[in-house]
Amino acid sequence: VQLQASGGGLVQAGGSLTLSCPDSGRTFSRPVIGWFRQAPGKEREFVALISRSGRSTHYADFVQGRFTISIDSAKNTVYLQMNSLKPEDTAVYYCAADCSWSNRPVCDIWGQGTQVTVSS
Q1: How many C-beta neighbours within 10 Å does residue 30 have?
Q2: Within a 10 A sphere around the Cβ of 35, how many other Cβ atoms?
Q3: Quick one: which of 62, 70, 104 has its CA closest to 86?
Q4: Could you tell me if residue 98 is left (phi over 0), alpha (psi between -120 and 50 degrees) or otherwise beta?
């Protein structure tokens, strides 16, 4: 497995979590990396994208300034800092690489997800 998301857990509404996704297979050499999520009974949805350089980011509308995607090239790791979490943010979160840069990105490389549960 080249991508393995971690950092999920149980948090109260209003709390924060930071997800990490280290790349063990040099997939972050691809130009665009992203975070996605899938809630029970729902389709997977886009959360955030970042360019390999870290200079460009793009977020889904529902993020509303609460999440921040970043990349540490030295550690070959992508992060998703999530603040002001809401119960509706409960989902399995995935990182992915080799993504298209759009409002509905398509990615070729997917990692294993990490569960985020926000209690009310």
Answers
A1: 16
A2: 26
A3: 62
A4: left
